[in-house]
Amino acid sequence: MLTFKNFNIADWFSFYRIFAAPFLIIIIFLDKRELFTWLLLISYATDAIDGFIARKLKITSPRGSQLDSMGDQLTLFTGFVGLLMFEFNFIQANYQWILIPFILYFIQMFIAFIKYGKATAFHTYLAKISAVTQAVFILWLLFFGPVYWLFYAMIIIGTIETIEEILLIFLYPQWVAGVKGYPWAIRDKRRLAKEMNKKG
Asked: Are 172 and 191 in contact (CB under 8 A)?
């Protein structure tokens, strides 16, 4: 049975993002753009903090990876809803580009749930770079306006990262957390051990 003692400090930063999401949605519909943007900045900041703390204190775990991923997904969703409300003209003018990583993301989620019964939590290097790029672009757009080279960089990195995630799903027969990327996955002892067991 899980209790408050089962969760570490990094988990609670993830919980903050999860619990903050519905309140951010309410602030969006109250049309409080500046307040929403500052609170979204705090949510993105906790994403950087919890990962750093988990690695520094060596308290990483599959559960923590799942919580982190859930917090990331809710924060991204909240940020996108904010853009729809506050920057609808930008979204409307560029929706074709935005659809590319979004469609791939939903394909990746569908495949993950079919295979694992839950979302992935690989936390690859590309995923981290993509998350930072998304956060910087969304916050910059909300604070100051669009920067198109950053927008295109976000789309390209997000697309490549999602394709890598799909490849990793096909590479790993069972759910795992903490995969640095496809080149590392090829040599991952966890995957190789499972393949040897199957052959044996």
From this structure: yes
